[in-house]
Amino acid sequence: MPNSLDLPGLPKDQRVVVAMSGGVDSSVVAGLLAREGYDVVGITLQLYDHGAATHRRGACCAGQDIHDARRVADQLGIPHYVLDYESRFREAVIDRFADSYIAGETPVPCIACNQTVKFVDLLATARGLGAAALATGHYVSTKPLASGHRGLFRPADLDRDQSYFLFATTQEQLDFVRFPLGGMTKPETRALARELGLEVADKHDSQDICFVPGGRYAEVIAKLRPHAAEPGEVVHIDGTVLGRHDGIIHYTIGQRRGLGVAAGEPLYVVALDAARRRVVVGPRSALAVRRLVLRDVNWLGDRPLAKLDENGIELFARVRSTRAPQPARLVMDGDKVEVELLGEESGVASGQACVLYEGEGAGARVLGGGWIATSRRSDAAEAALARLADAPQPAA
């Protein structure tokens, strides 16, 4: 039987650890690899609040999902282990999420989870078990490159594309991790689950960030950081004070509804000034961004960033998981990595990720990405925000 994971030797001679969340995707991965003859070991990470989350829908890595993963492993006849990573998850993901939100950023905790707990801690565990690879149910794919390493690519099913959440995967990690669902669509995955007789074949997909039930970010932050919700001013970008708010944790860049102020035009949150506890609002035009400065860049391209010429390289950039990649140019300004958007994006906030691609469609290679440190708006918007920053500090 051919080796579907591009591993040396026969499947029966290869141990593969499968990260089993209890959902249909990772369960199908385990089932497929077991059917192909690999020595499969399933591992489920208990990441948070096992008791409270036992019966909550739309979650992962807790309660009912752990039971589902165990049942699937029993059905497939593979060993299964549950590892308690709650303290590690809180330190590496939840606490950082809270601190970032308080600072007025818009963090993406699923990326941080992949970047730390899953592709560092779990990968190390897989190596410790003598595995030749770690396999997951993400909808992306890796392929061998001429360099001898593996590249990361968008999947066949762009509606399920998870490459945005995996940009921080290092080259060393990519060479070890496999994504067997990259060439499949979600309906095909469910059909395979039924073919394999898995009880989770029709299980709903997780929707929420696992520790933020119902998307209620402010409630979670208030519990984690009780003093975070400090009141302050709602200020128009022209400097006019329009009202008061109960804490910047209740707002995100680009927000239109629930601002609690009235004006003669539609208003959007255009900036969050954590130091001054200000929510800055303005017209939609003030949200337009054309240039980004990235920090903590993970570069997966063949040519080192330091060797780019002054014109940079043309590529595609994606600033949110729900948006398609857009034409852009990557340039180096000294040690700074900057992305020039050939069009414009709105609702861009620091703390979000900007992921870079060689192309835009299915199978496009991921060149890496970074976290958005700052963004450049129109000259008029930048000047207005600078005037606000120089204005006197509001009274406590």
What's the short story on this structure?
Catalyzes the 2-thiolation of uridine at the wobble position (U34) of tRNA, leading to the formation of s(2)U34. The protein is built from 8 helices and 17 strands. The chain is of the alpha/beta class and 396 residues long.
Name the strands of the widest sheet in spatial order.
Answer: 12-15-14-13-16-17
What is the CATH topology descriptor of the largest domain? Rossmann fold
Count helical runs. Answer: 8
Largest sheet: 6 strands, antiparallel, barrel
Structural class: alpha/beta
Note the quaternary state here: single chain
Distance linking N and C termini: 71 Å
- Mass-distribution shape: globular
Helicity level: 10-25%
SSE pattern, N- to C-terminal:
EHEHEHHEEEHEHHEEEEEEEEEEH
- Which spans of ≥5 residues are poorly predicted at pLDDT below 50? 50-59
Mean pLDDT: 91
CATH superfamily of the largest domain: HUPs
- How many domains, as an integer? 3
CATH class label of the largest domain: Alpha Beta
| Second rung of CATH, namely the architecture of the largest domain | 3-Layer(aba) Sandwich
Tags for this model:
alpha/beta; Rossmann fold; single chain; 396 residues; 24% helix; Elongation Factor Tu (Ef-tu), domain 3; five-stranded parallel beta sheet; SH3 type barrels; six-stranded antiparallel beta barrel; globular
